[in-house]
Amino acid sequence: MSDAERRVERGGPYVGSPIIMATVRVVMPFVFTFGLFVMFHGADSSGGGFQGGVIVGTVVLMLGIAFGIEATRDWIGPRLPVALVGIGVLAFLFTGIGSVLLGAGFLEYAVYGDLGIPHPSKYGIEFVELAIGVIVAGIVTGLFFAIAAGTTGGESA
Fold first, then answer.
1. pTM given for the model
2. Confidence class of residue 53 from pLDDT cuts 50, 70 and 90?
3. According to the model, what pLDDT value does residue 8 have?
């Protein structure tokens, strides 16, 4: 059975709704910005990297619902979610190991103040929250494509 036959068997090919597409185009930048806001304010208030990363990851889910999963998967590509996870993990590790190399404990941000960085704890926490958010957004995106591949018959990301 071909891929096209499987799609027809499951209800036909994707048919986009102009209303949903227009709504996603308008709402998407605000959702993405809100996700970044939640990431950066996790040290001072409710939120953090995990919650913000999930919100940013939902932007991809909205694109998939509005424009079709296959089109979104083709646009993002299979390597971007993996790259996001890798970049986030490296940023987290370099921040923690950097403080150890400077003579402090793992993720002791105050040592970065010796390098002339103002408010090292504040910016260190925000950087780590951003790294965690990037990791979670990559994982949410990858999981979305993997789960969708099981329902659409496509290849997993």
1. 0.82
2. very high
3. 44
Examine the pLDDT at 14 and tell me if it is beyond 80: no
DSSP label at residue 29: H
Structure confidence at residue 40 (pLDDT)? 83
CA distance 61 to 47: 20
Question: What are the boundaries of each domain within the chain?
Answer: 3-152
Query: Residue 74: is it exposed, middle or buried by C-beta count within 10 angstroms (0-12/13-18/19+)?
Result: exposed
Q: Are 52 and 135 in contact (CB under 8 A)?
A: no
What stretches of the chain show up as alpha helix (H) in DSSP?
A: 3-9, 18-40, 49-67, 69-76, 79-101, 120-152
Tell me how far the alpha carbon of residue 33 is from its chain's centroid.
12
| d(C-alpha 35, C-alpha 58), whole Å | 9
